[in-house]
Amino acid sequence: MSTYAYYPGCSLHGTAKEYDRSARLVCQALGLELREVEDWNCCGASSAHMVSHWLALSLPARNLQPVEKMGLETMTVPCAACYARLKDVSCELKDPEVRAKIGRVLGDQVTGRVTVEPLIGTLTTQEILDKAASLIVKPLTGLKVATYYGCLLTRPPKVAQFDDPENPQSMDRLLRTLGSEVVEWYFKTECCGASLPVARTDIVLDLSRKLLAAAKKAGAEAIVTACPMCHSNLDSRQGEIRGRYGDDFKMPIFFFTELLGLALGYPARELLIANHLTDALSLLQGRGLA
Amino acid sequence: MPRIGVFVCHCGSNIAATVDCAGVAEATRGFPGVVHAADFKYLCAETGQNLIRDAIAEHRLNRVVVASCSPRMHEPTFRKAVAQAGLNPYLMEMANIREHCSWVHADRQVATAKATEIIRMVVAKVARNEPLTAKQVGLTKRLLVIGGGIAGIQAALDVANAGYQVTLVERTPTIGGKMAMLDKTFPTLDCSACILTPRMVELSQHPNIELRTYAEVLSVKGFVGNFEVEILQKARKVNHLTCTGCGTCWQKCPEKNVPSEFDVGMGRRTASYIPFPQAVPNKPVSDTANCRSVRHLAAKERGEKLMECRVCEKLCPTKSIDWEQKDEIIVDRFGAIIVANGYDTFDHSVYGEYGYGKYPDVITGLQLERLMNASGPTKGEVVRPSDGKHPHSVVFLACVGSRDDKVGRPYCSKICCMYTAKHALMLKEHDPNIQTYVFYLDIRAAGRGYEEFVRRVQEEYGSTYIRGRVSWIYPQDGKLIIKGEDTLLGRPVEVEADLVVLATGITAASGAVDLMQTIGISYDTYGFINEMHPKLRPVETNTDGVYLAGCASGPKDIPDSVSQASAAAVKVCGLFSQDYLTTDPMTSVVDQMKCVGCFLCEEVCPFRAVERETLRGGKVVARINESVCKGCGLCVAACRGEALNLKGFTDQQLLAQVTALLRA
Prior knowledge:
The complex is a heterodimer.
Chain A: E1 2-6, H1 9-12, H2 17-29, E2 32-36, H3 48-51, H4 53-69, E3 74-77, H5 80-92, H6 96-106, E4 115-118, H7 119-122, H8 126-135, E5 144-148, H9 157-160, H10 170-177, E6 181-182, H11 201-217, E7 222-225, H12 228-236, H13 238-245, E8 253-255, H14 256-263, H15 281-286
Chain B: E1 4-9, H1 21-28, E2 34-40, H2 46-58, E3 63-68, H3 71-84, E4 92-96, H4 108-126, E5 135-138, E6 142-146, H5 150-161, E7 165-170, E8 184-185, E9 190-191, H6 192-205, E10 209-213, E11 215-223, E12 226-233, H7 248-252, E13 258-259, E14 268-269, E15 272-273, E16 285-286, H8 292-301, H9 311-315, E17 328-334, E18 336-339, E19 343-345, E20 362-364, H10 365-372, E21 393-400, H11 416-430, E22 435-440, H12 450-459, E23 464-467, E24 470-476, E25 479-486, E26 491-497, E27 499-504, E28 506-508, H13 512-519, E29 546-548, H14 558-576, E30 580-583, E31 588-590, H15 600-604, E32 610-614, E33 620-624, H16 634-638, E34 644-646, H17 651-663
Parallel strand pairs in B: 1-2, 1-3, 3-4, 6-7, 6-18, 7-10, 18-29, 20-27, 21-22, 21-27, 22-23
Antiparallel strand pairs in B: 5-30, 8-9, 11-12, 12-17, 13-14, 15-16, 19-28, 24-25, 25-26, 31-34, 32-33
Helix pairs in contact in B: 1-4, 2-3, 4-17, 5-6, 5-14, 10-11, 11-12
């Protein structure tokens, strides 16, 4: 059994509880032990790096330290924004000067030895895909989905070091393994506007509308994400988009772990899919998946 | 007894500002053998040289030390000066107190002391200098031109017209290069073929030019004036001596689906083909990878079955098809080489944001040239590759594979701004209803009539220029959506297009690095040739007798390539106007009494200058071919028995320098 340090981040303890729940369940089923990072703090995403470079490095760096003390080497991160910050600092820590300075800020030695990977990466290695295939209880046959990776998972390529920056494939491979049909579309890594939900809601609505429209046009019945920010934007804004633009998408938005959980036989209730603001259960019930 | 004169140059204030030149001259008077010392403001000036010449006569000097700059520039100057005073030129040595001293130090006292020490070492060396005499070797007055684009054509014609024999080697089946693929040329909009093809024909009919298409250079040995070159003549499967170019074989060839290299994949060709109607030579080659007859014969040898074809063989009226024809290696001698191997366009499939080269309606500028060209695959009609429809909105992207560190191409390709403007204009001429957009970073239109041309495209032809890089292209409803930023307005922009044309930049030609290594010339990280001097010797390489022209040394437009070709031709003519070449006498020499015949020297010599000689008694020893030796000294360092020595830099001279410094 492989053991990973698990950094849920604030979203998975709040707005994206279903991501947290489904992630823990599928990892358990696939033989991956997740141990939550002890005494973790905010990763600083979306605000710290606009204010202070050193704060933006120190906050995530403090989350890497306990991992070594827990005797683990690899941290897996479900949230794309957290991943971007943690991966960034793990790259920066290769520089001894940065290491020394952050060590002074945190009042502790920083080694930068922990490997950071996104949960979508952890769960899409060939080994895990093979295992998932062997454990499928309810294949997602016929479910047409658009995979949406968001802007942070693959970029900037030099830092993210995950999948193809413009046309990533890992989530596609996973969903095909589970039996669903992955539509071809071109918005896989476009911005949903997640950094501006309060300040410029109009931009968020515009960008999210474009994404939803593109997915619908491509023939998708649902969008699958690997990011709680993307999920919250696309899932929660569909009513406002209808009010402003008149488009009524009714497009269910899933976390990839939810669909993986369904395929592995977990009931939708246990995966907290009823928490979604845009109805996702009807689609699943219609396919006999919930 | 050496009678040494020391001359200290001020170099204006270059040396004098940090070195007390008079003080240095005074100090050198006490060095062993020095009988005269002087300082002067500019020794390289006529008056300075006179000062040296007069001193040689007056003080009966038999050795001279000039303490000034690096020998790179002025060693020939001072050697000539002492020679005019009757001294062997190799009895003059330069002490570099500028680059090695005054320019790199600020403390006057320290710099002055260091300059004195530098001169002390050179004085010790010059006392042991021997008179040397340059030798003369003959030369073959024949030129090899590598590459049959416009640069190679121009260079070959210029040298041939001056009366020398020229062989031009081109690896594709025709000469003409990239220029032959173009429709019009900027900024005059001359028809490219109309101005190029007469040159191609002139070349093929020139009595002094031997044309070898479908051939490559395999190896280059020898040295300036005496290169021995192996040329691979690839099998054409067509006897060009009897073929009349009637066209029956390529019209009847049943294999019609080979992507045409000449049309950059926009069109198809047959397996037996000429690349384009005005090709020179206007005789076909059979592309053996696709020819059904060749594949049949190969399959038969492997014991497999494949349908026989031989249509061309049956139909050829002159019986010129020759399946037995094999690749052939030709060895020839040349006195000089001009490398004009051209360029390739950047492969844009690395740009994921532009679809990884997979969207059929995202094409390159060169592909658009083929679509616009009357002899191109669409007979000059501009249509979308995906559905053959006429585009109404066309977006151009500048700097694809240029000025982009992300893809490892930080340099500007120089021609893209201009050819993109030309394309925008030409499209409007094709169809006045087409709307064109150009995304650019900066407009670089430096050249006569260039800036005016771009303005005309913007103002008279209504092309919309948007300053900014495009971040994303994606297909939607049969169109392409182009997203980018207008950096002048600071706003994101989105344009819908039927066709996107990428201004792909210039990269070194495929195989360029292998070619440079075969010839033995230096190149940069991008595979472009390094000139001998970027400003003052722009068409010479670092190997004597090898010249360059065109895009071989970096992006250039047609006028620049042609100018360089003519410049290289003049250099070759200058070389060929001599009946003998004078070689540098500072070469290695073997003391055959000491040589044990281990031939380590042969292994390390980069110029293949070490030969083997059997002495009476059967002992095999090394001998240096002085015409080939460049005097690099590698063999001297490698020799374990101290049998080798470098004339002008003998072990004894170098040891004397070190000893002088240590004893001081």
